[in-house]
Write a structure and sequence with these properties.
Radius of gyration of chain A: 13 Å
Number of strands of chain B: 11
Structural class of chain B: mainly beta
Shape of chain B: globular
Structural class of chain A: mainly beta
Order of helices and strands of chain B: EEEEEEEEEEE
Largest sheet of chain B: 7 strands, mixed
Oligomer: heterodimer
Number of helices of chain A: 0
Radius of gyration of chain B: 13 Å
Strand content of chain A: over 45%
Distance between the termini of chain A: 36 Å
Largest interface: A-B, 25 and 31 residues
Number of helices of chain B: 0
Helix content of chain B: under 10%
Order of helices and strands of chain A: EEEEEEEEEEE
Chain lengths: 113, 114
């Protein structure tokens, strides 16, 4: 089964509203990453949060990490129609090699103008 | 421009006809990886390479081969493609073999095997 699982699978909001997506994982991690994908295109890295960090900001993005609950959330504030995309969390395996990332199935975000 | 390139972008082929999808990065990254993306299954790792001549299996390696003879190139080889390998394929690279940094993704290759 997937290491990272996003929730909800789909989210539809109006422009200007905030969007929150959640990610849960099963095993210990070194870091957790969030990526964005426009339909059929390559993934673009948004933010990386390390296991010893609890919160990180980048522009309109805010990511939190709760290692005790094995969960993370991505908040997009003041959403825009251009934010419409799929969002994926990715976790490493927390192993010494740390060289394998596992992606969740993604949250499809639709921002209506 | 720093980028990961893949070729071809689209490919329709028949069962059993060997094919290679090329991947190249110009960022001197150590780590490279191949993923496939299927509806409802997300991205799954096929193979990865931590450096030249070092490759290892990901979660779904069956039916695929890779090689890493040069740092910049990481081709994906399908010796005898089958319809269940119809998918969207992504190559990615990262500066660090321990994935402490982001991965850079190529634009994708949409493969159809009939």
């Amino acid at each position: 089964s997937q290491q990272g699982e996003e929730d909800p699978q789909a989210l539809s909001i109006q422009e200007g509203e905030n969007a929150t997506m959640n990610c849960s994982y099963k095993t210990s991690i070194n870091n957790l990453q969030w990526y964005r994908q426009n339909s059929g295109r390559g993934l673009v890295h948004l933010i990386l949060i390390r296991s010893n960090e609890r919160e990180k900001h980048s522009g309109r993005l805010r990511v939190t990490l709760d290692t005790s609950k094995k969960s993370s959330s991505l908040l997009i504030t003041a959403s825009r129609a251009a934010d419409t995309a799929s969002y994926f969390c990715a976790t490493d395996r927390g192993e010494t090699s740390g060289s394998r990332l596992t992606f969740g199935e993604g949250t499809q975000l639709t921002v209506n103008p | 421009e720093a980028q990961v390139t893949q070729n071809p972008r689209y490919l329709i082929t028949v069962t059993g006809k060997k094919l290679t999808v090329t991947c190249s990065q110009n960022m001197n990254h150590e780590y490279m990886s191949w993923y496939r993306q299927d509806p409802g299954l997300g991205l799954r790792q096929i193979y990865y390479s931590m450096n030249v001549e070092v490759t290892d299996k990901g979660d779904v390696p069956e039916g695929y081969k890779v090689s890493r003879k040069e740092k910049r190139n990481f081709p994906l080889i399908l010796e005898s493609p089958s319809p269940n390998q119809t998918s969207l394929y992504f190559c990615a690279s990262s500066p660090d073999s321990f994935l402490a940094y982001e991965q850079y993704f190529g634009p994708g290759t949409r493969l159809t095997v009939t």
